[in-house]
UniProtKB/TrEMBL annotation, chain A:
The keyword Membrane applies. It comes from the Bacteria. It comes from Nocardioides daeguensis. The chain crosses the membrane at residues 42-64, 71-90, 96-116, 202-220, 251-269, 275-294, 323-344. This is Branched-chain amino acid ABC transporter permease. Keywords: Cell membrane, Membrane, Transmembrane, Transmembrane helix. It is a multi-pass membrane protein. InterPro entries: ABC_transp_permease, LivM-like. Pfam families: BPD_transp_2. It is found in: Cell membrane.
UniProtKB/TrEMBL annotation, chain B:
InterPro entries: AAA+_ATPase (IPR003593), ABC_AA/LPS_Transport (IPR051120), ABC_transporter-like_ATP-bd (IPR003439), ABC_transporter-like_CS (IPR017871), BCA_ABC_TP_C (IPR032823). PROSITE patterns: ABC_TRANSPORTER_1 (PS00211), ABC_TRANSPORTER_2 (PS50893). Keywords: ATP-binding, Nucleotide-binding, Transport. The keyword ATP-binding applies. This is ABC transporter ATP-binding protein. It comes from Nocardioides daeguensis. GO terms for molecular function: ATP binding. Residues 6-253 form the ABC transporter domain. It holds the Pfam family BCA_ABC_TP_C.
């Protein structure tokens, strides 16, 4: 089936992608049963999903492409969030659109500052250093009065709307009755008005960010930069000897990942209106990493699926409440056993596996190529 | 020797108490195939590693095209025109053959994040240049039909060929081949040696480590012999063949050690 999809002519493929994106935008208005979350605001859940997707895309660059295990990714997220919070609340009251770029740059700079000394160590050591980084950022926030210590920061600016209190126009939701589907004219979403109750505009903002980052990800991956990351991940010494300045590219991966993490943090802070250190626990670094690993590190689509599952499932099955984390942990263990490469591993891994399988079936002595093994 | 492209001058390399290279000097002339031979553990690969910047000589100097390359970063040495292959194959297994070679070709490029992100003319120019060059070397090595195969899925022989292709793509003047024929059968070895001559005819200078004496004698212009980190002989193949020190150290001892 996958081959049929890739064989379609380009305009058809573009059209399919556009339709998929439109569907994603319309999802909270459609409120389809089974998918929508009973008892929790569906728009809010979708916003969380979009933020997880954003974070996972960023972390995938670091972990999936460049092969750098980062256990403190929440630190960058926190720096983005806190920078936006400080700049738009009582400290400075900047407009949000100015604060977010600054937050993103702050996250990126912190990525470079953290990476410059630590990217010289490899593997497990890097994981430990980044783990410490994430905790340090949180503890600094807890212990600095200026950052609101444990109480956090309130009154973070919302995104500026267009068209005032009523929005540009209003879109009614669907209502799924018993066997009938109706337009619910009492339940409308104001387009481009960022209020307190209706979370859907925030979801649209998050989704837009995801799409932009996704396109950037495709463009960068398919270039000298992407190849350098992969080569570094595969064999750092060999890459270096083939002319790849590996340290520079690792730092670039770190900074790019931090950029995306900071953006996600900034958007989160703006939606939330307040933040405190509880939002930046080590647990989140692990959940983000789980998103990447569950989906299949190195494959951007897999990572999006992983992030969606990690963010969505606990909300959908809230009735299991206390067991959520237990079930989640169990699911991860099962997944590790059944699909160690993730749900959607990179296509190349799949291809290699298939070839291996074919070769096993053919056994040996199939061609003159084999003679080279002598 | 004005035409020496690489000049290794009194290089000593110590790991703690172990002297891996002891006052080794030799040079390679432009357009030459120089063989570096010696028994196992003689310091051949260490010598390669010193030239390509993996190890820094404890003392001595290495000149490439008249300028010292001691202390330069590995990638900078590659960019300046020295490429190498590895004794134990070190490709990027989950990348395709073409991508492997493209990584090599990228050594001469400088496209960064922004060029790639906005698809600036520089990105497009360098992508095209890299792609053309990569396909050219793949064709030269006879593996262009496998360009889209994952490196890990190539046969052993093709992996060895891909390593040479990747090294050639970096745009080097000097190519260092570390036992490129290891694990080959005699017919393949002959084929490879013809290929190495063709590489030289394309204008590259070749530094070759090889175990198989017959092969080395057949293909090289000059030979340097190492034993226990010291240079014990240097000369044209015929001289080396008749050199008693070499025969004692190497030829008579492990002639069977060809793989």
């Amino acid at each position: 089936m996958k081959n049929k999809l890739t064989a379609l002519p380009k305009p058809v493929k573009v059209l399919l992608w556009v339709l998929l994106a439109l569907f994603a935008y319309a999802l909270p208005l459609l409120e389809p049963p089974i998918i929508s979350t009973p008892g929790v605001d569906f728009g809010g859940v979708l916003f969380t999903v979009s933020i997880y997707c954003l974070v996972a895309l960023g972390l995938n660059i670091v972990v999936g492409y460049a092969g750098l295990l980062d256990l403190g990714y929440v630190g960058f997220y926190a720096i983005g969030a806190y920078t936006v919070a400080i700049l738009t609340s009582f400290h400075a009251s900047w407009p949000l659109l100015l604060a977010i770029p600054v937050g993103v740059v702050a996250a990126m700079v912190s990525g470079v500052i953290l990476g410059a000394p630590t990217l010289r160590v490899r593997g497990d050591y890097l994981a430990i250093v980044t783990l410490g980084f994430g905790e340090i950022i949180r503890l600094v926030a807890v212990n600095t009065e200026w950052l609101g210590d444990t109480r956090g920061i309130k009154n973070i600016a919302k995104p500026p709307g267009v068209g005032g209190e009523e929005g540009l126009f209003q879109i009614p939701h669907l209502f799924w009755g018993d066997g009938t589907v109706l337009l619910d004219t009492d339940d409308k979403t104001k387009f481009l008005f960022f209020g307190v109750l209706d979370q859907i505009p925030y979801y649209w903002m998050g989704l837009t960010a995801v799409i932009i980052v996704l396109i950037a990800d495709i463009l960068i991956k398919n270039s000298r930069v992407g190849r350098a990351w992969e080569a570094t991940r595969e064999d750092e010494d060999a890459a270096e000897l083939m002319g790849v300045p590996t340290f520079k590219f690792k730092l670039l991966a770190f900074a790019t990942g931090a950029f995306v993490g900071g953006l996600a943090g900034g958007l989160y802070a703006s939606r939330q209106g307040f933040i405190n250190p509880q939002s930046f626990l080590l647990l989140f670094s692990i959940l983000y990493l789980a998103s990447v690993v569950v989906g299949g590190q190195g494959n951007r689509w897999g990572v999006l699926v992983g992030a969606t599952l990690v963010a969505y499932l606990p909300q959908r099955f809230r009735e299991f409440d206390d067991f959520r984390v237990l079930v989640f942990g169990l699911a991860l263990v099962v997944l590790a056993a059944v699909r160690p490469q993730g749900l959607l591993p990179p296509r190349r891994t799949v291809r290699a596996k298939k070839l291996e399988h074919d070769l096993e079936e053919l056994e040996e002595g199939t061609g003159e190529e084999e003679a080279a093994h002598a | 020797m004005p035409e020496a492209i690489l000049d290794v001058q009194n290089v000593t390399l110590k790991f703690g108490g172990l002297t891996a290279l002891d006052d080794v000097s030799f040079h390679i002339n432009e357009g030459e195939i120089l063989g570096l031979i010696g028994p196992n553990g003689a310091g051949k690969t260490t010598c390669f590693n010193a030239v390509t910047g993996v190890y820094r000589p404890t003392s001595g100097n290495i000149l490439f095209q008249g300028a010292s390359i001691v202390g330069l970063k590995k990638h900078a040495i590659t960019k300046s025109g020295i490429a190498r292959t590895f004794q134990n194959i070190r490709l990027f297994p989950t990348m395709t053959a073409l991508e492997n070679v493209l990584v090599g070709a990228d050594a001469q490029h400088s496209t960064g994040m922004l060029s790639a992100l906005f698809r600036l003319p520089k990105h497009r120019r360098e992508e095209k240049d890299g792609h053309d060059r990569a396909m050219e070397v793949l064709r030269f090595m006879g593996i262009h039909r496998k360009a889209d195969e994952l490196a890990a899925n190539l046969s052993y022989g093709d992996q060895r060929r891909l390593e040479i292709a990747r090294a050639m793509a970096t745009g080097p003047k000097l190519i260092c081949l570390d036992e490129p024929a290891a694990g080959f059968n005699p017919a393949e070895k002959v084929e490879l040696m013809n290929l190495i001559r063709k590489v030289r005819d394309q204008g590259y200078t070749v530094l070759l480590i090889e175990h198989d004496m017959r092969l080395v004698m057949g293909v090289t212009d000059r030979i340097v012999v190492l034993e226990f980190g010291r240079k014990i002989a240097e000369g044209v193949p015929a001289e080396i063949r008749d050199n008693p020190a070499v025969i004692a150290a190497y030829l008579g001892v492990d002639e069977e050690d060809a793989s």
